[in-house]
Amino acid sequence: MFKSIATLYLTIFAIYVLFSRQPDYFDGETAPATIHFVKDSATQKLKPEAFFTVGTSAYHVDAAYFLRSVKEGEKHEVIYELANPKKAALYKLWGYWITAGELAFSIIGFIVLFQVAVGINKNPTPEALMEQLSYKPERKRRYDD
Fold it and tell me: What is the pTM of this model?
């Protein structure tokens, strides 16, 4: 039962991730970007930003993300939509494809739903158990007449 539920979970999660990214993976464009640390005006701390150009316009996007480290001057790819390059994202596995919130929520949901399935199937009623034990498969003919 665990293998079938895990396979179903991974399939649904992969389809969800593929079609829910913003900027859109299928319509998005990629561009090379360089990481530079910029002082945040509110907190006066350095934060990483990815600088890239589209045509003659220069843009920058926040490159900081939970459990992702980048270094000054590193080259990375950003993904953006042509209609709105300001809403770009650093094109990395952690942060674009897999986010911490989605991963935590889906794992917790998987565990809860698995426990519900086990709880439902663990203690069948005596009538259901007798029905399962007395089941005899019907003989099927090989060919229809």
Answer: 0.75
